Known about the structure:
Elements (H helix, E strand, L loop, with lengths): L1 E6 L3 H11 L5 E7 L2 H11 L3 E5 L7 H10 L7 E6 L7 H7 L3 E4 L4 H12 L7 H14 L2 H8 L6 H11 L4 H8 L3 H15 L4 H10 L15
Helix pairs in contact: 2-3, 8-10, 8-11, 9-10
Amino acid sequence: MIRVLLADDQALIRAGFRALIEHTDDIVVVGEATDGEQAVSLATTTRPDIVLMDIRMPGVDGLEATRRIADSQHLAGVRVLILTTFESDDYIYEALRSGASGFVVKDTEPAELVQAVRIVAAGDALLSPSVTRRLIADIAAKGRPNTAATAYRIDRLTGRERQVLALVGRGHSNDEIAGNLFLSPLTAKTHVSRIMTKLAVRDRAQLVVIAYETGLVTVGSAHHPPNP
């Protein structure tokens, strides 16, 4: 059973999400928060699998709450799925860098929202093409791959692991990585897990950020195979 905490200051939105989730067989709502402070507190006491987190909340906003959850060793297994009104929300990129596993637009179709929860609960990143494009553009504008490479210590990775990280950065699933590199899906999954351990990150969303910030993946290279 996937345990979900709802964090949104609008009661109608929370009620809508709760009604939707209650019609599923594998997801349950374990609490509701009206601001970021309460979201962190309830996450600590209820230990949900997923926090559906609105960015724009009074007091402690969703961005800061996401950062606190990501930084807490006690909440290491809790993933944050960002809720936003528009895909162009200025804080999405920072939320991903703060530890969010992805985002979903509030007017997403009900079936897609439920699927989003399942995807993030399974440990996968959830990034729409529009957000990925903005992510790439923002990182490209900074132009500091050497500094980022040192900061993230990607020198700890083997050549194969760098190939895998580059493919993760381009949005490939484990099955797609396996096909590209002629590996079994289990071996591809093992590589991804080892990379996350070596780079001390929580999930694939942060690997996407690292792949671009370190220059393993560059703008315009999304369809090119990674170098060995």
